[in-house]
Each structure stands twice: as C-alpha cells, then as structure tokens.
Amino acid sequence: MDRTDTKNMIPVTQLPMGRAQWRVWAVSSMEQIIGAGLSTLVGIVIPMVGLLHSNENHLSGLMQGVVGASGLLGIAVGSPLIGMITDRHGYLAWFRICPLLITLASLTIVFFPSLPVLIPALFIIGFGVGGGYTLDSDYISETMPLRWNLMLVGAAKGTCSLGFMGVAALCWWWLAGGLQPDGWHLLFIIIAALGLLTFLFRIDWAESPRWLMDHGRRTEAQKAAQKLFGPEAEAEPSANASGKTSGRSSLFRGKNLLRVIFSGVTWACEGVGVYGVGVFLPLLIMALGIDRSHAEGIEKVINSVEMTAIINFFIIPGFIIGLMLVRRMNHGVMMTLGFILSAMGMGLLLWAYTAHWPVWVSVTAFVLFEMALNAGPHLVTFIIPAQIYPIADRGAGDGIAAMFGKLGAIVGVFIMPVLLSAGGIKLVLIVCISVMALGAVISGVLTPVVLPSQNRK
Known about the structure:
By secondary structure, this protein is an all-alpha fold. Helices cover 75% and strands 1% of the residues. The chain is built from 19 helices and two strands.
C-alpha cells in the first residue's frame, strides 16, 4: 500500500469511539457475563440437588465444594494455557473455540444430568470462560481508543454484574414458575444460550491487528483493522513490541515477580470474595437467616435466590463508582481501599449476626461488601495486568494473573461449605475478613513499587 492510500488513515487507537468500537467491546465482554452467570447458577443448583434424596445426588459439604470449584478450576487452567498459546499463534481461533466449548459442555449437562457428568462438564465450561477472560482483555486493550482504553477494559469487567444479577433473576423466574429440584439441569440452558450467542457474534471477526503487526504480518494486520473498524482504520504496532515473549521463567523473576504478586495474589484474595461468597450466597443467606421467610424445601431456595438477586443488583452501582474513579485515581489505591471497605462490610455482617440485629443491617453490610469489592478489587484486578506487562508478555501475564485469581476462587469455593459445616457462619465470616485484610496489605505495600503512577501505554 503506497503513501497516497494511507495519508488520510487513522491509527486504530486514535479513532473516535463509534459503533464499530462498541461492537468490538461488547462482543469481547461476553465471557465476563457468562463466567459470573455460571457462578450464580452453580450456587442455585447446589441447594436444589441437595433437596433430592437419592444417593447419587447427595451432596456432602465436601462434594458441594467440589461441584462449586469445578468450573473455577477450568478457568484457572484455561486462562494461562490459552493465554500462552495465543501469544504465539494469535487470538482469533480460540476467540471462537471458547464459546463453542461453553455451549457444548452446557448442553451435555442438560441432556445427561448426573454428578459424574456435571463435574467434568463444569470444568470444560470454565476452561472456555478462562480462555475468554484472557482474550477479552487482550482485544479490548489493544484496539480501543487510547483515551478510553483502561476505562473500557474495566467496563468490560463490569458487565459481569449483568451475569450475576441476570442469571439470578432468570433462575428465580424459572423456579417461581414451578421448576422442581429434579429439573436443576435445565437451568444450564441459560449458559448454553449465552455461549451460542457469543459464538455467532464472532463468526464475522478478525485477528487482533496489533498482534499481527507485532509478529511482522503487516498486510494481514491492515486488513484485520479495516474489517473491524472500517476503511479509515490503520493498524499500528505496540510502542515496546519485540514480537518475542520473555518465557515463563522470566515472569517469576525480578520485577516481574512483584508484578505477579501484585496482580495475581490480590486477584486471588478478590476471587475468594467474589466467588467464595458469590457461589454460595443463597446458602449463606439461609445460614444468616436473612431470606425473609420460614419456608422449607424448594420455597426456601426460591426465597434465598430472590434475596441473592437483590444483593447482586448492588454489584452494578459498585462498578459504576469504580468506573467513575478509574481515570482519576491510582488503581493500586482503589484496590487497597476496596479491600478495606469489603473487610468492614464483612465485619458489620458478623457483628449484626452475633448481636441479632434487624435484617436490614445484615443486608446493608452485604451491600457495602459488594459495592466496595466491585468498585475496587474486582474492577482493577482485571485492568492491572494489561497496564503493567509489555505486549510481548501480556497474554501470559493476563493468564497468570487470572489463574491466581481463580486459584483463590477455587480455594474459597471449596472451603466455604466445609467451613460452614465445621464452624458455622461465624467461621466463614472471620475467614472472609482475614482474606480481605490480606489483600489490602499486599496492594498497599506493592502499589508504590509496581504502580506508583497511572500507566496509560
């Protein structure tokens, strides 16, 4: 292409925010909705299966943890593995494969409902979601207008609130409409539909223009940029691109090790709060006695799901507050304050339960916890890896951080029902407070070292 063809073209990240940009952003955010919806759905399915009386469907506290952690284990494996593969071979193929895996595994549960099928199928769904987590942030961070880049990465994470609240509302509607405990597997139609919709959106798609440029494929990069954003779009390389990754071992040495701890361990602490609490929120609501009923059986589950939907609604204003601050405030400071306020919310909940305070105090405590967690750690842990890693290692850095996050989530989900059985709701709350405090300490100490000022590369 000669100079007369390119003189009026605009680099992708300098284009104004238009319809094409919103399309790329929305389609690249889908796994956030699916992952959050999956965790909510699993938390509803577990007490439904617990109401069945056959030996095959009996769920001990340990087995509840296994079921709850299966999808998260898939995410923990999928995030770094797919991140490393796509760093070398491109994003597009796995960008399409991931939603197909989610759809097929969900339909397997629908048509073959049993625990031996449920656990591996949840792992496969999680594997697809984990790959999507890595690729979603890569596409957005590499193609959105530079001025809005970090906010749009954070806003993509904020779409998970639609998954938490929307799936809870759909499940409540289905249960209130008469779905019985033995129909638990039908709820996975929701996840299958979301996966299929995501795949259909991605049929007419293109490789990341920046990835192509950084690997010396300039002509293909230009075609990809124009396919995604129109004829005036010009592909551009990264400012620090080398086309070579640093290798896995170098990600755990020197300043990269501090990056891993800062982005990964804090994400693990956040994962305990988001998933450890989120997956078992219906069970925790019943244990705390704030489901506003004295019903039993499926009616008690329906009431707890209704309260879950109400509490999950406050995830949305939490993300909105975070997005209002994300361009004005150091992200490490946002994360630290979020952890502190989340710990305070859990502390208030423990105090309200111990002192037998009115239900509205417990609900307020949950709201404080959800808003602080989502305005701070849940939002910025998704943004930070794309900020602190060079593009040659960004997929791997994103994947490792997400893996740590999901390992924290796995531990939280696995031990939550065990803690509930061993020490009751008080022990659960004490552990949650301790984890939030640990996240505050790590982010507070490492922010001046790893992220002393906003990095807007």
